[in-house]
Amino acid sequence: MTLREPVITVENLTKRFGDFIATNAITFDVYKGEIFGFLGANGAGKTTAMRMLCGLSVPSSGRATVAGFDIYRQTEQIKRHIGYMSQKFSLYEDLTVAENIRFFGGIYGLSNHQLQSKSKALIERLGLQAERGKLVGELPLGWKQKLAFSVSILHEPRIVFLDEPTGGVDPVTRRQFWALIHEAAASGITVFVTTHYMDEAEYCNRVSIMVDGRINALGTPSELKQQFGEPSMDGVFYQLARGAKRGD
């Protein structure tokens, strides 16, 4: 599949906190319907970059557009065209499954008719019919994460940003979560996902690997493994991290 239409464009985007440079002149494009993996160790600058693209943090310099909107001047338009799921669980644990869906659907501007049909379809797709009246805080973590992701795309955004969405869940649940991601991408939603699990790179169309605030590699998983002569993305990342420590 050839992906042509960029929905995110980033050029020399930089964020400084005093003397510390969290993201250092990063440049890349993300295309419509693509699953774009933003990989790196904890503290590499992934979340900082994502927050700028979501209109939650003002860059120090550089340029970027998200869904065609400028991240300096049009942050409210950006927020209306994206979904977002943070690495910390993003639903209300003291509301039921059905109440969370209605609440966030209302925030996203869905009509009552849309809410009813989408809520029913979502609960059936996740197999949560018996839990619809249960408090979200009572659900296992894996179900919470899958529900949070499904709610983040309830309004059919052009792009969904996922920040470490599988942190702390078991391997089986991680695979199930990635099946939901591929389903969303197949419907035309662009998925921008940060993770420090290198094996999850294999689920992405393309990945960028950040080391110390910079993008040190960008390409498909196959291209990067061939480029670095490694059988796995773990090996690619190890080479990049080792090179950064040596100052190569």
Automatic annotation (TrEMBL):
Q: Give this protein's Gene Ontology molecular function annotations.
A: ATP binding; ATP hydrolysis activity
Q: Does the keyword Nucleotide-binding apply?
A: yes
Pfam families per record: ABC_tran
Q: Which UniProt keywords apply?
A: ATP-binding, Nucleotide-binding
Q: Coiled-coil annotation: which residues?
A: none
All residue ranges annotated as the ABC transporter domain in the record: 8-237
Matching entries from SMART domains are given as:
AAA (SM00382)
Domain of life according to the entry: Bacteria
> Quick check: keyword Acyltransferase in the entry?
no
Q: Per its record, how is this protein called by name?
A: ABC-2 type transport system ATP-binding protein
Question: What organism, scientifically named, is this protein from?
Answer: Parapedobacter luteus
Which taxonomic lineage does the organism of this UniProt entry have?
Bacteria, Pseudomonadati, Bacteroidota, Sphingobacteriia, Sphingobacteriales
